[in-house]
Amino acid sequence: MSTHVPFGRLLTAMATAFHEDGTVDLDATARIAAHLVEHGNDGLVVSGTTGESPTTSVAEDGEILRAVHGAVGDRAVVVAGVGTNSTAHSVELAEQAAKVGVDGVLLVSPYYNKPGQVGLRHHFSAVAEATDLPVMLYDVPGRTATTIELETYEAMRRYDHVTSVKEATGLLARTAQLVDMGYAVYSGDDANTLGYLAYGGVGLVSVVAHAAGDQLASMLSAWADGDHAEALRIHTSLIPAFDAVMGVPNYGATTAKAALELLGVLDNRRVRGPLVALDDDEVTALRVGLAAAGLL
């Protein structure tokens, strides 16, 4: 495992809470942030996909970021999700994040547009040149329909502050190549984390940590300390939670918020369309999975 760990070992791509009328609930969002930091997280990713960023405005993103930074910025790293499918929009979000004073930005490849590698390099470079904040690139072809190729990663090394990658391609062996380029690689897939670590990854940007932060932090610490058997034991114990949170069609923000409701952190599981909150049967299945992992 690399010793270069720019954002800590465990971050959660945190959910955003909403009022009954659909507006952002800043108090409840700050409560989520505090819960996560109190349960093993070194940092938080705000307004990523799990934070329902495709449905929030620039103004809302700023309010959410300020609320989270105000609540936990003295105790944890705060990373702003600035990835969109519009370069100008992403630049605006990155500039806003710098004004709030957070610790970095997460930049996913543009979704739906399917730019080629030249387009990806243009997009990433425009954002990198708009901010001095450390940048974590994010490759998740299942959501974007585009893979960041190694030559694009190599090209982005000309920016010293493009420091890390959230890797969710499932191409575990590429991690070693990214590490050789100088990137700190974070798993973007809870269930594959040990595989990424084995190839030189440094940590995890999680969704399941909404419910299992302490356990995931212990797993990452065990691995870093060389106790791979203990890391595997913890990982294996969490498989029912991985499956319950991430292994169903209606997953992500929906399952994270339902888990927070089951834990008593939230009093609802509201999401914005096109997402639909888990129904009672789905909540029951989630409860069973979390309980099987010892989380309830």
TrEMBL record:
Pathway assignment: Amino-acid biosynthesis; L-lysine biosynthesis via DAP pathway; (S)-tetrahydrodipicolinate from L-aspartate: step 3/4
CDD domains found in the cross-reference section: DHDPS (cd00950)
Catalyzed reactions: L-aspartate 4-semialdehyde + pyruvate = (2S,4S)-4-hydroxy-2,3,4,5-tetrahydrodipicolinate + H2O + H(+)
SUPFAM superfamilies associated with the record: Aldolase (SSF51569)
Keywords: Amino-acid biosynthesis, Cytoplasm, Diaminopimelate biosynthesis, Lyase, Lysine biosynthesis, Schiff base
Main location: cytoplasm
InterPro entries referenced in this protein's UniProt entry, alphabetically: Aldolase_TIM (IPR013785), DapA (IPR005263), DapA-like (IPR002220), Schiff_base-form_aldolases_AS (IPR020625), Schiff_base-form_aldolases_CS (IPR020624)
Catalytic residues in the record: Y138 (proton donor/acceptor), K166 (schiff-base intermediate with substrate)
NCBIfam families (UniProt xref): dapA (TIGR00674)
Family statement drawn from the similarity comment of this UniProt entry: Belongs to the DapA family.
Protein name: 4-hydroxy-tetrahydrodipicolinate synthase
